[in-house]
Every structure is written in C-alpha cells, then in structure tokens.
Amino acid sequence: MMFESVSIRVMCFMVFFSQGIRGEDVRHVTGYVGESVVLPSDADPSWTLNSIRWFINENVNIAVLHGKTVIVDRVPLFRGRLELNTSSGHLTIKNVSSRDALKYRVELGDRILAQQKTSFVQLSVQERLGKPDIRLRHSFLDSGYCVISLGCLSMNSKVSLSWEPEHGFSERFWSSNHGDSGESMLWTSFTPNRVVTFSCTAADGSHQESSNKSVTCTEPEPRRNNTPPGC
C-alpha cells in the first residue's frame, strides 16, 4: 500500500510538472524584415534589475546584464544587431531577418527584492506589405475601341491580387490570378478619348495596399484633304 501511495504521488507530480511546462505563458511578437523589433521582458516596473539573460534554443545565451556588465555580441547571428535596455530588460533586434523567427527566453533578477522571473517571447517575421506595381502592357485601337492590358506585381510572395475599375466604369473586364510569374493581368476595352483608372490591391490576410493606374488611348483625327479644288 505504501508503494502504491508513493507511485501515485510521483505520477501526480509528473503530470503537474509537464502541464506547467506546456502551459508556459508565451508573448507573441511580429517583426518585419529589415526593421527593428522589441522583445518585451515583462519585468515588473518596480524592480531594479541587476541580472538579465536572453536565450534562444533553450540555453544559447545571446544577451546578458550581470551587475554593470552588458554583453550582446556573443552569437554571430546577432552580432551588431542587439540592444539591451538595462532598466526594462527589453531586447531590441535591429535589421530583422527571417532567421530571427525563434522562441526567446529571458531570465530576470531583481537586486532589491532578490526575486527572479522567467518569460518567453515567440518572434514571427514577415515582409512588410508594400504597394503593388502596375504596368501598362498593351494599349491600341481596334475596331473603334481602346484595348488595354495591365499587369500588377507585388514584391511580397504570399499575397492575393485583385482588380477594381473606377466608379461608373460599365464595360466588361477580365482579370487573372497571379501565376508562377507573380503577376496578375487585366484586359478590357472601352471607347477612346477618355481616361479610365484601375486599382490593384495586394492583401495578405491582415493588411492590404492598393495602387492606381490611369490609362487612355486617343482616336486619331481623320486626315484632312489638302488637295486644292479643281486639281
């Protein structure tokens, strides 16, 4: 009976311990390629920090404050790109790249209260959504109509592209999804001697950016007969 009681206690401890690990509080932060991002430490504002340690990959120490000594160039991946705020414990990563998309751990120590705290930050890295580029591919007159084709291209790969004509445009138009080239095409025709504006929108699910392009083609004036009368 004593052996069973001890076994049950050990099992309960193991379940509680594993739940504690899985249930760790993780702060999710998004950074953008080429920009700076701040990883919050979640330190108590009333603390006086005398120990700050930031880690990746469980135990790789990338930044440390010990007493008055600050070291932020330990790991080649982050060399020259880290700034450690010794008051708040926040860690700034400059010139963010996709390789920085990692889980970070920070361990804090308070000098006055002699307390410690551990927090986790999961960094996701995205490309900043930019305005799409619209280019005129074709413009010509055919059977009295202005025939237009436009191409829309985004520097971001994981976006959807859509077209929209200006308000009041009643003619039909056709558009394609962007294929392997990443370009979405639009074709339409309308009566000449007018300016029509089309919009292309790039969307990534949470943000969208649009660009406009105005197009026209002019119907040539009929040739004048300059032959003098009687000739």
UniProtKB/TrEMBL annotation:
Assigned keywords, A-Z: Glycoprotein, Membrane, Signal
Region named Disordered: 204-231
SUPFAM superfamilies for the chain: Immunoglobulin
InterPro entries reported for this sequence: CD2/SLAM_rcpt, Ig-like_dom, Ig-like_dom_sf, Ig-like_fold, Ig_sub
Record keyword Lipid metabolism present: no
Lineage top rank: taxon: Eukaryota
Compositionally biased residues, Polar residues: 208-217
Location, primary (coarse class): membrane
GO annotations of cellular component type: cell-cell junction; membrane
Residues spanning the signal sequence: 1-23
Keyword check for Glycoprotein: yes
Residue span, Ig-like domain: 132-216
Gene3D superfamilies: Immunoglobulins (2.60.40.10)
UniProt-annotated location(s): Membrane
Name of protein: Ig-like domain-containing protein
